[in-house]
């Protein structure tokens, strides 16, 4: 079995190479890429959401997660996610599995709590519904529905339909052996449109850490695990910070698409088109 130090170096060096290559590639593309074309007109928007996943990251097993997350933060949203994922990969490769085990423990406990109490929110579903509601209010002529991504993915892309996929990273992070576990949230939003399922935009927002309340922080993992019923609510509060920005982005895309086709732009809006359908609504 590879040593812990060797595994750590492999993952960290690999992550640095990927991040640097990504930044260099992005820089080159920024110089030569033409302005993005507006999306084709769409009369319906389906907001889909992936299952909410919870991650626990700390210095358990000798990992210096603080250095890794600092490195990731230097490269923005993608780098932060890569750093947190690398911390789990190092832990698993080194054979300790402490972080992986704790991640599984927290996720299992939250799932059990949600099964017993329907009032405990599904973070991604609640975020998708909030975004859909805001979009429908801004663009009343646009029909907006919400569905789990697993259900919608079974269908073929359709002309005139836009798809906004909500994916999040929800974590409790402890940067040192003496640091508390603090909540962290990051959202990724992918917008595609039309029969060709053309990618229009993928937006990743910066990691937000902490709520400003000590009640949402835990010195011990056992305390966090015992209070698992609170975690979805904490993450939901953090996620709501994305609603306005995401809804404005999509509403702007809709307006831009409609303005490129005069016959569509001047068409009379259908009054009930802005109803936000629940995830179980019949289509």
Cα radius of gyration in angstroms: 21 Å
Tell me how many strands there are. Answer: 8
Our count of domains comes out at: 1
Number of DSSP helical runs: 10
What percentage of the residues does DSSP assign to strands (E)? 15-25%
Helix content: 40-55%
**Span of the ends, CA to CA:** 53 Å
Largest sheet: 8 strands, mixed
Estimate the mean pLDDT confidence: 74
Net shape: elongated
Which structural class best describes the helix and strand composition?
A: alpha/beta
Q: Ranges with pLDDT <50 over ≥5 residues?
A: 1-33, 60-78, 263-273
SSE topology string: HEEHHHHEHEEEEHHHHE
Signal peptide: 1-26
Protein name: Lipoprotein
Keywords: Signal
Describe this structure in words.
Strands 1, 2, 3, 4, 5, 6, 7 and 8 form an eight-stranded mixed sheet that branches. The chain is 47% helix and 18% strand. The protein has one domain (4-24, 38-277). The relative contact order is 0.18. With 283 residues, it is of the alpha/beta class. It contains ten helices and eight strands. A hairpin with an 8-residue loop joins strand 4 (161-173) and strand 5.
Produce the secondary structure layout.
Blueprint: H1 4-32, E1 44-49, E2 54-57, H2 65-74, H3 76-93, H4 98-116, H5 123-138, E3 143-148, H6 149-152, E4 161-173, E5 182-193, E6 198-204, E7 208-209, H7 221-226, H8 231-239, H9 243-259, H10 262-265, E8 276-277
Parallel strand pairs: 1-3, 1-4, 2-4, 3-8
Antiparallel strand pairs: 4-5, 5-6, 5-7
Helix pairs in contact: 1-3, 2-3, 5-8, 5-9
